[in-house]
């Protein structure tokens, strides 16, 4: 028997990526695996994109709606965006070409909390799901599926879709088997029950995914790696941000608000989050836990050196070096990592119960602590909100981090008024730039404005922020959250006009 | 024995409101009962305000930090604001004088999700709580307390405070006894456990509140009614809003997304929410359930006529007629209503599990569905976010409602860019004005903008919104969420300058 496809019936459903892609018709809603560049289908989307290009060349419309777990890679989002094959895309993405098309106004993109996607699909908010395309490590004798390097929404897509295409990717480490915990206790309200998970390491599901075999219309074999993006080496700025976080955490331990085991860490995506995690190993912590979405290289390093004893996530997003390290020591990591559905990794019930410390990057914060995670100059989407809102709203602590300036100083990360709000003043507790940290807990808006300006702003922008706030204090319509409506977004407007927020 | 104070030791702690108030010292953090004008202490705060006025007249500073459940009334927020006695106030308020002082920049106010207050206090984010002042219906033989017309954060304040002052209010109906469910299963992370509540009517606690008797420093007898504010009679506009909601709900039932029992309703505060609830009785529903914060007159009417079979809340906010009706049929209502701590009534875990239908008022929404619930012209706070964010983020459906215009048409409720964001585009599903409803589920920002403008805007403003959006589509920096930074807040600026948002 085939060593990755151990079910005779499914073995017979093998076909080429082209043949499988041909089963997808214009107008369909197609749900795919994939979360932060891991575990996404790799050959069917490429074959589909070619068929779309051909259709378009022949003057025929060919677009589909695409749902995933989170971001994928050029072989999925890139090629389908290039082919003009996306009518709607949700929930999170980070592919450069897809991003460009969205920001050119050519693709409709809907940005949803990662904890909401599966339930909204079940609620019927996105209509029928015609086909699911799911990458797996292998198919077992009983037809159950060994999940790949991400779990994401795969359980939901397999359950809900009318038909299923499976990509068996032999480059995914067979060592992943046994690492997953797929929870099958969800229900629709009013039939929901408590989720009995009390610690990041608790297992509440099964290591395999079930699929109704009669729905499987194709099995495709692939042999290709995940995106494996490299991270920027931590630089001076991200090391300073990490140091401020360490300082703050020390203070929390001294006041007794946390023990030196902290509380389960969540760490967002991107260079800053990755560098800050790596910085944590300087803190002298041992035996911490993580309850997070993504395991990046930084987290893997912390597990290796014992800083983190156990990590729960829904996906691996590793560099090539990271994947090599993981594959080499997969038995070590299998004891210390569990991958879950994103419904569980990002679940408000669990994040609140566990009391996560949420560490996320941001694009900008305003002087009152409203945070923009998604839209540069209020309109150009970067990646989407991802799970940052799930953790920031429900965690023990919500931390947002960014360099104080972007684009060689031409953009300030601290602005009078956030040009897009993803996390409101009600949800943000600690902001960090390389300049310092601002602890907003227990502060009113005006107290926040003074602290944020003093501790976080870059020297080029600090006097400008002070000047804005003082004039707002004097002239604002109301003086609870003083603002000058005629000027609040003027920094962004100036950037558009002159390419620089500075006066 | 005294019929409301049945514990001998506490009976001996009786003293005048003046004597009790004299136990409160400048700089203290004082946590008080009270939620939406119900169950707040009535005589100690007034006596305290007098002592503050005297101190201030004598040139001495006298300010305290005040934490409550939610809004109170003139006898608490009003007098203490007038006396200049508040250094910081949180989390929700609606007293006109307090609001004025906050907006004059004289009082620091911090606006927090109602589900967060108790846990943030336990986490130590607000420092020590020196004194709790809690209104109760009575004290039992064993010293346990019969909660009053609201539960709010009382359990937390009683547990956390160094010292406790109890106001026993004999105007509160003795019939309230047995109506409460005070949950004692909370813990700090990492020791938290699932909350085993699966239906609005489940009881998971006890009907009485415990208090460490050695902490009780005063018992004060009062005899005064709750605020008892009258509601505006539903007018044509709010009836139209209610009709649109009924229309929408019919559609949900037809498509099978809900049964005709709907899902547990949450209904916000204010005239619109109250009128819309009253309108629900026209829908022909029977045996619905509510899982909400406040029972206003509208909800009471629905319970009376059988539309709602059971309601879970944390407070009553009734008019004089409402309270009379309640007192007359208290045995009927006791079987159909349970009052819980706000930690439980607003808990993300439970709101998501139950799948609440969240119905809240708003100040304004922008064309992308960002909702402002709190700050008029981005700076003048109305009441605060209350629990609207808890329900909107975690419920099955999040609905926000408002007339399409305010102030005789001089203000549009639909604007290009929300001047303050309390609920982001990621959290809003259905918006309603008297013009119609906009169902935003499954739509991208640009699709939302078109629908919101078409369905919700007042005719005076619709062409202005269309014009803004078309120009933004053409000239925006990015075209995911098209905006003109130089113009996005210009409607609010025009209102400040001319008193009218219209051109
Ligand atoms: C906000 C976010 C984009 C920051 O990413 P990052 O990699 O940590 O931070 P960087 O400073 O390297 O910024 C990434 C890019 O955004 C740009 N950027 C950052 N702030 C900016 C600003 N205020 N204006 C314009 N560009 C900005 C940077 O210049 C950089 O651009 P480049 O790729 O051209 O070099 C990222 O954290 C994110 O996508 N967050 C939202 C999702 C999320 O939090 N998920 C968590 C769990 S899934
Ligand atoms: C938003 C909110 C103030 C609306 O209140 P409401 O009583 O339903 O609605 P109304 O239309 O009667 O508006 C109340 C007042 O706000 C004013 N208002 C409403 N929208 C406005 C706007 N866009 N600009 C200026 N004023 C506005 C109204 O004119 C009215 O003023 P008045 O008291 O001088 O007559 C109210 O729902 C609220 O406080 N919400 C936040 C808290 C919440 O949602 N809690 C829910 C659970 S606790």
UniProtKB/TrEMBL annotation, chains A, B:
InterPro entries: AcetylCoA_hyd_C (IPR026888), AcetylCoA_hyd_C_sf (IPR038460), ActCoA_hydro (IPR046433), ActCoA_hydro_N (IPR003702), NagB/RpiA_transferase-like (IPR037171), Succinate_CoA_transferase (IPR017821). GO terms for biological process: acetate metabolic process; acetyl-CoA metabolic process. Residues 322-468 form the Acetyl-CoA hydrolase/transferase C-terminal domain. Transmembrane segments: none annotated. CoA binds at residues 363, 383, 387, 407. Residues 10-221 form the Acetyl-CoA hydrolase/transferase N-terminal domain. It holds the Pfam family AcetylCoA_hydro. The active site is at 293 (5-glutamyl coenzyme a thioester intermediate). Keywords: Transferase. One of its GO terms (molecular function) is acetyl-CoA hydrolase activity. It comes from the Bacteria. Belongs to the acetyl-CoA hydrolase/transferase family. PANTHER family: ACETYL-COA HYDROLASE (PTHR43609:SF1). This is Propionyl-CoA--succinate CoA transferase.
């Amino acid at each position: 028997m085939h060593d990755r496809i151990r079910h005779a019936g499914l073995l017979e459903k093998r076909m080429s990526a082209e043949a499988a892609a041909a089963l997808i018709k214009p107008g369909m809603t197609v749900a795919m695996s994939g979360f932060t560049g891991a575990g996404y289908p790799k050959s069917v989307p490429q074959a589909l994109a070619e068929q779309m290009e051909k259709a378009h060349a022949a003057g025929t419309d060919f677009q589909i709606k695409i749902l995933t777990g989170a971001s994928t890679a050029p072989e999925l989002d890139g090629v389908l965006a290039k082919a003009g094959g996306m009518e709607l895309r949700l929930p999170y993405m980070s592919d450069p070409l897809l991003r460009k098309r969205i920001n050119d106004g050519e693709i409709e993109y809907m940005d949803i909390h990662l904890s909401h996607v599966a339930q909204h699909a079940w609620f019927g908010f996105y209509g029928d799901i015609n086909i699911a395309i799911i990458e797996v490590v292998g198919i077992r004798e009983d037809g159950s599926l060994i999940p790949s390097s991400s779990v994401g929404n795969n359980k939901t897509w397999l359950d809900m879709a009318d038909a299923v295409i499976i990509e068996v990717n032999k480059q995914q480490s067979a060592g992943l088997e046994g690492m997953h915990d797929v929870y099958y206790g969800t229900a629709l309200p009013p039939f929901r029950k408590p989720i009995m998970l009390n610690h990041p390491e608790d297992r509440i599901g099964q290591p395999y995914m079930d699929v109704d075999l009669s729905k499987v219309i194709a099995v495709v074999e692939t042999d290709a790696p995940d995106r494996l993006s490299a991270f920027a080496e931590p630089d001076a700025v991200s090391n300073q941000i990490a140091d401020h976080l360490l300082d703050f955490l020390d203070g929390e331990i001294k006041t007794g608000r946390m023990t030196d085991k902290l509380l389960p860490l969540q760490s967002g995506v991107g260079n800053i989050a990755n560098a800050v995690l790596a910085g944590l190993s300087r803190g002298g912590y041992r035996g911490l836990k993580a309850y997070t979405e993504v395991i990046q290289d930084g987290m893997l390093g912390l597990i290796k050196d014992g800083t983190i004893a156990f990590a729960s996530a829904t996906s691996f997003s590793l560099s090539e070096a990271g994947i090599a390290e993981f594959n080499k020591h997969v038995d070590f990591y299998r004891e210390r990592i569990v991958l879950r559905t994103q419904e569980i990794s990002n679940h408000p019930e669990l994040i609140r119960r566990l009391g996560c410390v949420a560490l996320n990057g941001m694009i900008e914060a305003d002087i009152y602590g409203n945070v923009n995670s998604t839209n540069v100059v209020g309109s150009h989407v970067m990646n989407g909100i991802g799970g940052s809102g799930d953790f920031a709203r429900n965690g023990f602590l919500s931390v947002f981090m960014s360099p104080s300036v972007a684009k060689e100083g031409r953009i300030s990360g601290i602005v009078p008024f956030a040009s897009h709000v993803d996390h409101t003043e009600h949800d943000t507790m600690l902001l960090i730039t390389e300049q310092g940290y601002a602890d907003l807990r227990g502060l009113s808006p005006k107290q926040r404005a003074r602290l944020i300006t003093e501790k976080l702003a870059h020297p080029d922008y600090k006097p400008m922020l002070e000047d804005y706030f003082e004039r707002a204090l004097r002239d604002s319509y109301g003086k609870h959250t003083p603002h000058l409506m005629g000027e609040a977004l003027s920094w962004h407007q100036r950037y558009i006009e002159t390419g620089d927020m500075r006066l």
